[in-house]
Sequence to fold (477 residues):
Amino acid sequence: MKRAITVVLTLVACALQGTAPASASAPAPTSASIPAPPGLTSADVSFTGFGGLTLHGTVLAPAKAARPVPGVVLVTGSGAGVPREHLLTEATEFARRGVAVLIYDKRSAGYSDFRRSYSELAVDALGAVGALRARPGVDPAKVGLWGLSEGGWVAPLAASRSADVAFVIVVGGNAMPPIRQQVWNEESALRRAGVSGSLIEHGKRNFARLGADAGLFAEAFFDAEGVLERVRQPLLGVWGGRDLQTPPEDNPPLFARALRRGGNTRYTFRFFAGADHAAHTTPDGGVTRGEALAPGYADLVGTWVHDATSGRPPVADAATPSKQDHASAEISPSPWWASGWMQLVAFALFVVAFTAYPLVALVRRLRGRTVRPVSRWARLLAGAGLTSALGLFVYIFYLMAAGRTPDPGPVLGGRPLPWLVLQTLAVAAVAAGIATAVAWRRAAATVPAGERVRLGLLVTAGVVFVPWAVYWGLLIP
Fold:
């Protein structure tokens, strides 16, 4: 059953996105050597990651250093096979602050939209740490990890497993499960379009749960706080004030709480007003990423790394977090009655019951047999119930496929017009179900046995439809 849910949702999601499911065995792309920026050296390296996969990277380092320098491995955000050049700006600026920096091509083998493992990515990151520690001119006792976005889950996990990691830096990082962060991300896009109410608070959130149930949301409930409790190294957290992907106000207190529970007070939190998710400048409030780093960000990293690796670690140094437009919501796994299994059963019932009623009537008419309907309301129940059930999943799939730039349609009172139509159909289906049940009961003695089965299936679907529609927000303002 779970496999069936997964296959159906995967195919529909891929159709809406216009893509095929990503291959878990696709080879990682390789990059040409990166020329050394002025004042720096550039050297290509290779190392072994999870499963024996060979990964390739480049080390940028100060050209003239009187003594071995600290080092940092940059762990990028989500996406399969992200090339090392994606973090070239960060690598160049950090290296100019006296730090050797390793950037590498992210794996695509074993990583796709629907399958990823932070544990495996952590093994890759530790392989990179080992490669950087072995480089001439790098102090092996002063090599740490920097993680952006998804890397903000991976870097602390790697650090919690190895004393070879001297420090941790997270940028746009999360101390919350990925499902909570992602739902906040998608909600933010809809709220910017003027949407509020049940589509966000029920439709989107429960759809994310369903995806996790079906195995389409990899690492959905990853225990980020549990990992941070095991981190003993100094940690620098950086967030942009216009981060539209990660809640910049909710996360720092979660980081502090988890680190303190583990006895670690060696952390620094800093916030850059006007910067985006990656602490880059942004021309439009976080929607578009500029090429340059936020002013002062690279200086902060350089100074902090030198201090943290020279016997001057921070002590619970946290500035006031940036304000975010709305709070994120904790999201738990689906209860049994709303699980993927139960959703599939309910949906199958709707399709069979709501489709069977008009089909039986059509077959009878073609055969020249007519049976007076118990109630005209039954037709409305079948039509409105099926349309609203199918329409809900199609509409939410459409919004999901749009990513950070959804077009929900015209918005009236916080509700998109397509959502209002679906809600109207749901209300009509409920009203028609009640009227059909009443009419059936009044005429029960005169209804033929075959018609009783047909009506019984339809009314049963109508009864199940009510709590289902409430759960998905179709019957909630």
Q: What stands out?
A: Residues 340-366 form the longest helix (27 residues). The chain has a mean pLDDT of 89.
